C-alpha cells in the first residue's frame, strides 16, 4: 500500500509530467508503462488508460522509444532523431532510472515533436515561387511571437530603441526596418562602435572644429550626417564612460557640440542603438551609465535558437540566395534535414545558418539535401546510427530493422546486392524484408 508521502510525490510528478511540452514515457525494467503524459496521448492518439499498466512492446517496437536499449546498456540517449510514423518527426532523450541502491528501476523517454516545423518547410515547396532572395526583409521572418511584437514596436515608433541580443540575431536588419518604416526617412547612418578606436569615437560621432586638431579642416560627425534620418550605433556597450556621458547629454538636451566647438548643433535624427546581452550587468556594475541606458527603450531580440519556427523560411531564403549567385537550382531540404536543423542550437545565429545553407547549395547540385550532406557538427544521431553495425539484423526490433535496411540502401545508392552484403543477409531475404516494409 502506498504511503501518504508517496501519494503526494506521485501527485506532484503527475502534474509535472503533464505540464511539459514534450511527450514523456516511463517504464519499469519489464517494459510496463508507468507514465504516459497528455502530450504523448496527443502525439500518438493513445489514451493513458489504454497504455499505462501494459507492456510498451504492445504499442511500440523496442527501437521506436529506445527505452529497452537504454535499460540494457545503462547509457542515456540524447537528441536521437526518429520518425515513429510517416507523418511524425521527433527527437528522443532517454535515460535509465536507478534507486538509491543502484538498482535499475526503469527508464524515461522524452520526445520533442518537431513535425510542425518540418511541415512548414514542405509547404514552402508547394508555393509557386520561393521568396525573392534579394529581399533583405525576408530575414525578418516573424512567425515567432516575440519577433512580431518587436517589428510592430519598431515600426510604430522608430526612435530611441536599444536592441539587445547575441551577435548575428538580426539587430542591424531590425534597425534598418525601423528606419524604412518612416516616409521620406532620410539617410541611414551606421557607426560600428566596436571597430573605431576609442580616441576617435567622439570626433566620429560629434564631428570636430578646425582648431581641435591643429588646423585640420573641421568635419561633421555622424550625428549631423544623419540629420532627417536615423543614426544607428552598433555595440554601444563598448563606448567609454565620457563618450557615454556626452551622448546621454545630447539625447537629453537634443543638441550637441563638435569637438573643440562652442556652437550648439540641434539633434535632428532618430537614434537607435544595439548592445550585447550583458549590458544590463554593465549597468549594475557601473560600467555603463544609467542615464544613457534609460534614454532608450530596451528591446530584447531572441536568438535563432529561440525562434525555431522561423527556420524553414530562413533556410529557403539563404538557399535561394546562394543558388541565385551560382546559377544553380535551389535544392530541396529533406524532412530529416529540416528536423536536424530544428534541433541544432545555432550558436552563431543567422551568419552561421547562412554559411551552412551556402555550403549545402554548393554541394547539392540541385538535388535533395540529405542528412549525409550536413556538416558533422550539425548532423544528428539517428536510430540506425545507434544500432551497432555488428548486431545481426534478426536481433533488431522491426522499427530499427527497417531503419537499418533503409540506411544500407542509401549507402549503396539503391544497389540491393551491395545492401544485402552490408546487412549480412541474402539478397532474397532483403527482397522479402523490403516487401514486408514496403520499401
TrEMBL record:
Pfam families membership: AAA_lid_14 (PF25601), HTH_8 (PF02954), PAS_4 (PF08448), Sigma54_activat (PF00158)
Gene3D superfamilies per the UniProt record, alphabetical: 1.10.8.60, Homeodomain-like, P-loop containing nucleotide triphosphate hydrolases, PAS domain
InterPro entries: AAA_lid_NorR, Homeodomain-like_sf, HTH_Fis, P-loop_NTPase, PAS, PAS-like_dom_sf, PAS_4, Sigma_54_int
Keywords: ATP-binding, Nucleotide-binding, Transcription, Transcription regulation
Any single GO BP term: regulation of DNA-templated transcription
Coiled-coil spans in chain: none
UniProt GO molecular function: ATP binding; sequence-specific DNA binding
Residue ranges constituting the PAS domain according to the UniProt record: 9-61
SUPFAM superfamilies found in the cross-reference section: Homeodomain-like (SSF46689), P-loop containing nucleoside triphosphate hydrolases (SSF52540), PYP-like sensor domain (PAS domain) (SSF55785)
Protein name according to UniProt: Sigma-54-dependent Fis family transcriptional regulator
Ranges where the Sigma-54 factor interaction domain occurs: 162-362
Keyword field contains Lipid biosynthesis: no
UniProt source species: Effusibacillus lacus
Keyword flag tRNA processing: no
Amino acid at each position: 500500500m502506498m504511503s501518504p508521502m508517496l501519494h503526494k510525490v506521485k501527485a506532484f510528478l503527475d502534474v509535472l509530467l503533464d505540464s511539459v511540452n514534450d511527450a514523456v514515457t516511463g517504464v519499469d525494467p519489464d517494459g510496463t508503462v508507468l507514465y504516459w503524459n497528455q502530450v504523448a496521448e496527443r502525439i500518438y492518439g493513445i489514451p493513458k488508460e489504454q497504455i499505462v499498466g501494459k507492456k510498451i512492446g504492445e504499442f511500440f517496437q523496442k527501437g521506436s522509444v529506445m527505452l529497452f536499449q537504454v535499460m540494457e546498456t545503462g547509457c542515456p540517449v540524447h537528441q536521437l532523431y526518429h520518425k515513429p510514423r510517416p507523418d511524425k518527426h521527433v527527437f528522443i532523450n532517454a535515460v535509465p532510472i536507478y534507486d538509491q541502491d543502484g538498482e535499475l528501476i526503469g527508464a524515461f523517454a522524452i520526445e520533442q515533436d518537431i513535425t510542425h516545423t518540418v511541415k512548414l518547410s514542405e509547404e514552402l515547396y508547394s508555393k509557386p515561387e520561393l521568396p525573392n532572395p534579394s529581399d533583405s526583409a525576408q530575414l525578418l521572418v516573424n512567425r515567432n511571437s516575440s519577433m512580431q511584437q518587436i517589428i510592430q514596436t519598431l515600426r510604430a515608433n522608430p526612435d530611441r530603441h536599444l536592441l539587445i541580443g547575441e551577435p548575428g540575431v538580426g539587430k542591424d536588419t531590425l534597425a534598418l526596418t525601423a528606419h524604412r518604416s518612416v516616409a521620406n526617412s532620410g539617410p541611414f547612418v551606421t557607426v560600428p562602435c566596436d571597430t573605431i578606436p576609442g580616441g576617435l569615437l567622439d570626433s566620429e560621432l560629434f564631428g570636430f572644429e578646425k582648431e581641435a586638431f591643429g588646423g585640420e579642416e573641421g568635419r561633421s560627425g555622424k550625428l549631423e550626417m544623419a540629420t532627417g534620418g536615423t543614426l544607428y550605433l552598433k555595440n554601444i556597450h563598448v563606448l567609454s564612460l565620457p563618450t557615454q556621458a556626452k551622448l546621454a547629454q545630447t539625447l537629453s538636451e537634443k543638441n550637441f557640440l563638435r569637438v573643440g566647438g562652442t556652437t550648439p548643433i540641434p539633434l535632428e535624427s532618430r537614434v537607435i542603438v544595439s548592445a550585447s546581452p550583458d549590458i544590463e550587468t554593465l549597468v549594475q556594475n557601473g560600467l555603463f551609465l544609467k542615464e544613457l541606458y534609460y534614454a532608450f527603450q530596451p528591446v530584447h531580440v531572441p536568438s535563432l535558437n529561440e525562434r525555431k519556427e522561423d527556420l524553414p523560411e530562413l533556410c529557403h531564403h539563404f538557399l535561394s540566395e546562394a543558388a541565385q549567385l551560382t546559377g544553380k537550382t535551389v535544392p530541396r531540404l529533406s524532412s530529416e534535414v529540416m528536423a536536424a536543423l530544428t534541433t541544432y542550437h545555432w550558436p552563431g545565429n543567422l551568419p552561421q545558418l547562412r554559411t551552412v545553407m551556402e555550403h549545402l547549395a554548393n554541394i547539392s547540385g540541385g538535388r535533395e539535401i540529405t542528412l549525409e550532406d550536413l556538416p558533422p557538427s550539425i548532423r544528428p544521431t539517428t536510430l540506425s546510427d545507434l544500432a551497432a553495425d555488428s548486431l545481426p539484423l534478426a536481433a533488431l526490433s522491426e522499427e530499427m530493422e527497417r531503419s537499418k535496411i533503409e540506411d544500407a540502401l542509401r549507402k549503396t545508392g539503391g544497389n540491393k546486392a551491395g545492401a544485402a552484403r552490408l546487412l549480412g543477409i541474402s539478397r532474397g531475404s532483403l527482397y522479402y524484408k523490403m516487401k514486408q516494409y514496403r520499401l
